[in-house]
Amino acid sequence: MKQTSSSFWLRTFTWLTAACLGGAAGRLAWVQVVQPLQPVERADITDRVIVRHGRRGMIRDGQGTPLALSETIYNLKADPQILSNDAPRFADAIAPWLGLPAVELRTLLDLSNHIRWVPRLMTNAAGRLETHRVAWTNRSVLVKSGVLPQDWELIRSNLHELWRGEQTNEIRRLTSDLPRRKRTQAIRSYRERMNQLRVLGLTAESVELRSYPHESLAAHVVGYVTNALDARQHPLHQLRGVMGIERQFNEQLRGRDGQLLTHVTRAGELAAERELDLKALDGMDVVLTLDLRIQSIAEQAVATGFARLSPKSITAIVVRPQNGEILGLVCRPGFVPGRMGADSQTVNYATRMQIEPGSTFKIFTYAAVLNEGLALHDNTEDTENGHWARYKVNDDHRKPGRFSLEDSFAHSFNTVAAKLTMRLPEDVLVRYMTNFGFGTPSGIPLGYEDRGRVKFPATRGQRNGWDGFTQSRMAYGYSITATPIQMAMAVAMIANGGTLYEPQLVKRIEGPGGTVLREFYSRKRASDLLKPETIQTMHRFMRRVVTHGTGGKAAVEDWAVAGKTGTAKKIPPGETAYSNRKFYGSFFGFLPVEDPQLAICVIVDEPILADKAYYGGAAAGPIFADIARGAAAYLAIRPSPKADTVNFSGTGNVPPTGKPIVAVRLHP
Amino acid sequence: MISKSSIGLFLSLLGLIVVSIWSLYSALLLEKHAEVLFSKQLVAIGIGFVGLAIALVIDHRRWNRPVWVGLVWFATLTLLVLALVKGREINGARRWVYGFQPSELAKLALILGMSWYCARFQHRLRSFRFGVLVPGLLTLPLLGLIFVEPDRGTTLLLAGMVGLLLLVAGARWQHVAAAALLAGAVVGTRLAFDPLVQTRWDAYRRPSEHKSTKAYQNRLAMLALGEGGLLGKGPGAGTQMRTVPEQHTDFILSVIGEELGLVGTWFVVGAFATILFCGTAIARRAGDSGDTFGMLLATGVTLLITLQAWLNIAVVTMILPNKGIALPFVSRGGSNVVVMLILIGWLLSIDRHTLRAMLATRSRQNSGKPNPFVDREGDLAFGRVVGNPFNP
């Protein structure tokens, strides 16, 4: 019995299990060969990736005023093919919401206006090629662009309610004489159609609009954007900075796109089955050191100057000498970032114009000579009547006799500057110039920047290298090139007592809600470049330029301005010799001289020649004065006690008023 | 002495192992740390074969002692508790401890324990107390611990196997059926409210509604099987199966199905069928030679392996809802393959020792004196049996 039972169960289970395995084998045959599951079935459930766009951050000035900001707007589009026969009715319904005339909208949405018959070669039944016309329909008709988000929300909710109330009674009435089944069918199809119109009749395409509320103001700093392209030159839904801060801080400004990876069926999104739900991240805000008021004061002054001088360009830079902050940076002609036209000038001359600065460079050569102790501030020097044959130095305003260094500087005698500079050993001169920041990029975060060229004595004999006249010419700003920003920072160095700063343009980067994500600090490139006595002397000399010298037009009523004029001959592009008709007129200076708060550089490229307005003092001086006056008033700088000694009647090129001093030369 | 059953068993085993290594290689190609997983599996197979050899060499009747049974039982219990307490939670279950799955050891322990128990109390199995109650109480701790891991599929499998063993050993089917009903009712109510079980039930009942969610794995596996067709795409050419999550463990059959087609999957089924018939033949032979413990052990091992294989195939082909049961010898998983190989070792050992005993008996009957060739004190030298020893 026991044996029987156990062998019975054993046999039973064996065969049962065998049957199970056989069933599994059959099932495998079924699912693998007889009726395999077709992957086509995936079609009714689709994976959909919805990209959410992060908004680009703002660019703001130091006070928080936006210079560039992004807003989302909508372009409303309609598909005439979907609207088809309902187009007139639909147009009438939505016209008042869009604020468009209904008649125009009807025409716009009419399908027949959007069909284009395109010829296409086809083979006919006989195997011959024939031209057939094929209908192409524009299925994305722009109805209205630039719709604000709140307006779109309103329109959408209106659309959702469209014909809701009148629907039921209307269909009942229309279908009353149909048999019951057909009636139900008709009602259902009508409702589906209405829903289709509500959802697909009018669609919105969101567009990120980058707007620059102050238009051309600080355009060269802010830069502009274009649509980013992918590798196949197709536009991505993203903006990319092309220039200026927009470009340099593109990574910080641009938002991060979010992504929603989800499954969509005919019934709608399977929200519970979202696989990836990444929120979009808005970009960060970049806060500049620029002050919009100072910037606009500078722009105003430059615009006035532009109208007066009709030059090729004017560049003006306002720097805070204490920390190297750029408060204003103007290039004119400029451009409006949102609207680029043929006359748009996007080159930032502040960093991309290498020029021979001319007499303004005497600030630095005098400083070097004085700092080396090779001349004393009360020395005198012979002007050689404006012609020093040995080094082919010429002055266009000749004045015989000995003059103090202060007057020589104030009247910008090239001969004196050359004589002084020749006292310096070559390498010392070059070391001073490189220490002052010439020949190396200033470090302003505006992209590529010209370095300027400082010739080194070691290049003697090379083509365009150091030659016998290089040193004497460097004395008054030739044989060396520099960019306006380099010169502005060097002037700021003289103003602040010998510290060369890297120009600071970005103050901080802010996240949403104004949280400071990164703070930028002023960076010193070099400090204690000059002795305090030298600084003092230079301040006095530069003050003298405005009070008694060539820079009278740069004077300002309440603040004591110190500076230096410069009138540099230009080698026009494509020519090899200095032109006698094309000049750079410039004025570099700072104020107030007793406690410098602002350093300003103005460079005018090719001012008009009439009335000798091309001289630095006459061309750039008034622009400097306008900027200085406005900015100093805006910043509420304490007025200088001795500002009233200025000679306001100066023409900018006055002959020396002081008598020639005849004195013993102390140092040969 | 090697019988045809042993040869069939061993050849099926080797075939499955070869298919396993090849398909795992293919399935793991794109996984992270593929080489680590793959070499771990190879090492596990190696360990398993060492275990198989040891189990083969040791006479299975030596295990028929309360001390060994108790030791294995307590060790399993301890490991199960440790897994619950200390184990790392992987995919919502605490099944692993020290890189080992105690529930696999529980299979071994339960088969051993039940075989010992049924052989020891065979004469009292027809009573309710000894037929159902005591074995129920003995197995409950292990089953319960596996259940709360949670590993419902294995619990079901093991409970079913215990029931089958009891029936084979001679318990009354009414008793077993009553106990099964009771347990089914209790566990069924417990499971009915389990979200995971509900999910899997949904996926099973209405796969087309949940094809991208609950039935995602199943559906992709079915797609992979369907892609394979009759002859498959060829080794390494599968693409669908790459998208099947965890295809190298429970859904390895979808890999085989896609790359080797119906031929490959039928080979697997055939191999398990071979194991089934050879295993039950061994069990019957052991029973015939009066070795109840060996018979029960062989029955348990055979039924466990084949039923587990069937459950796995049924899940992959969506005959049954998803459970999480590995395909023996083929799926990736070290503990599984080691324990399964040891179980096969037992089967071979039972066959070998049964055969030896029978031969010895017969030779004694024939000659009246011990045969020095087959009936030595020590182990058996390899020799070849000519003719069928059971039917001379």
Structural account:
Chain A has 2 domains: 49-112 and 147-288, Penicillin-binding protein 2a (Domain 2) (Alpha-Beta Complex), CATH 3.90.1310; 292-642, 3-Layer(aba) Sandwich (Beta-lactamase), CATH 3.40.710.10. Chain A is 34% helix and 23% strand. Mean pLDDT of chain A is 86; it is low at 644-668. Chain A is elongated. Chain A is an alpha+beta fold. Chain B is globular and about 65 Å long. Chain B has one domain. Chain B is mainly α and 392 residues long. The interface between A and B is large, with 35 and 47 residues.
Which features does this protein show?
heterodimer, A: 668 residues, alpha+beta, Penicillin-binding protein 2a (Domain 2), Beta-lactamase, 2 domains, seven-stranded mixed β-sheet, five-stranded antiparallel β-sheet, 20 helices, 23% strand, disordered C terminus, B: 392 residues, mainly alpha, 12 helices
Largest sheet of chain A: 7 strands, mixed
Overall mean pLDDT of chain B = 82
- Helical percentage of chain A: 25-40%
Residue runs with pLDDT of under 50 for 5 or more positions of chain B: 375-392
| Beta-strand residue fraction of chain A | 15-25%
The helix-strand sequence of chain B is HHHHHHHHHHHH
- Give the termini distance of chain B in whole angstroms: 16 Å
Q: Architecture of the largest domain in chain A, according to CATH?
A: 3-Layer(aba) Sandwich
How many distinct domains of chain B? 1
Distance between the terminal alpha carbons of chain A, to the nearest Å?
A: 139 Å
Helix content of chain B: 55-70%
Q: How many independent structural domains of chain A?
A: 2
CATH H-level superfamily of the largest domain in chain A: DD-peptidase/beta-lactamase superfamily
Quaternary structure: heterodimer
